[in-house]
């Protein structure tokens, strides 16, 4: 694990809460009267963020909870809820040319996300904080590294969508952050290759 990444990454539970907050912010940006290009960029950004978030939880966070002996109904429902969200995301994406139908699908997606967020934030995350303690920092760094890997193939589209959907300076900051993240992941890989050689 990259030392710099470990130092700058939030804990796993903080990262998850930040993702939840980001998703809700994106939903709220989708107000009536938004231009078609900004709306499409926001929808793409939201869908990509939700997919990456779900994959991070499934690959890193949920296995760590299970390893710690956490067995709860919320944890068991999490992956099926992610699968439902993925189906709704596919529907939302398929309705780009039908704004009214897409809006209805987005409302369904928002309800599903809100339900999932409420369960995680009221039960699962507090349990993780009690049981995993210090390990949450290491998990956060792993999740951050994996996020950068998952975002890298779509970094150009993500940056373009953020520039379209975010006002002025915010778009520049986000684009710079993505570029820095891509460089960081590239540097980590080169470091690992040298170490293993």
Number of helices: 8
Kindly state the mean pLDDT as a whole number?
A: 85
CATH topology: Four Helix Bundle (Hemerythrin (Met), subunit A)
Helix fraction, binned, reads: over 70%
What distance separates the N and C termini?
Answer: 17 Å
Number of separate structural domains: 1
- Indicate the radius of gyration in whole angstroms: 18 Å
Strand proportion: under 5%
CATH class: Mainly Alpha
Outline = globular
Largest sheet: none
The helix-strand sequence is: HHHHHHHH
Number of DSSP E strands: 0
What structural class is derived from the secondary structure elements?
A: mainly alpha
What is the CATH-assigned architecture?
A: Up-down Bundle
pLDDT < 50 stretches: none
- Looking at the chains present, what oligomeric state does this protein adopt? single chain
Transmembrane segments: 170-188
Protein name: Cation-binding protein
Keywords: Membrane, Transmembrane, Transmembrane helix
Domain Hemerythrin-like: 12-127
Q: What would you note in describing this structure?
A:
Residues 12-127 form the Hemerythrin-like domain. This protein is mainly α and 197 residues long. The mean pLDDT is 85. It has one domain: Four Helix Bundle (Hemerythrin (Met), subunit A) (Up-down Bundle), CATH 1.20.120. Helix 3 (36-67) runs antiparallel to helix 6. The chain has helices spanning 3-8, 12-29, 36-67, 73-94, 99-132, 135-151, 155-165, 168-196. It has 8 helices and no strands.
């Amino acid at each position: 694990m990259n030392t710099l990444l470990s130092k700058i990454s939030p804990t796993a539970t903080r990262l998850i809460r930040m993702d939840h907050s980001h998703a809700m912010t994106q939903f709220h940006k989708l107000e009536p009267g938004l231009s078609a290009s900004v709306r499409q960029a926001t929808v793409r950004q939201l869908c990509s963020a939700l997919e990456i978030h779900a994959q991070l939880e499934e690959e890193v966070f949920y296995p760590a909870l299970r390893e710690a002996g956490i067995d709860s109904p919320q944890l068991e429902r999490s992956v099926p809820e992610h699968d439902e969200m993925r189906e709704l995301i596919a529907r939302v994406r398929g309705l780009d040319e039908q704004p009214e139908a897409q809006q209805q699908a987005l409302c369904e997606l928002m309800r599903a996300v809100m339900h999932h967020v409420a369960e995680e934030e009221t039960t699962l995350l507090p349990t993780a904080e009690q049981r995993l303690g210090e390990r949450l920092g290491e998990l956060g760094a792993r999740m951050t590294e994996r996020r950068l890997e998952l975002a890298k193939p779509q970094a150009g589209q993500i940056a373009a969508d953020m520039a379209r959907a975010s006002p002025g300076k915010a778009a520049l900051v986000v684009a710079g952050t993505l570029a820095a993240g891509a460089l960081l992941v590239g540097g980590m890989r080169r470091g690992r290759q040298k170490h293993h050689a």
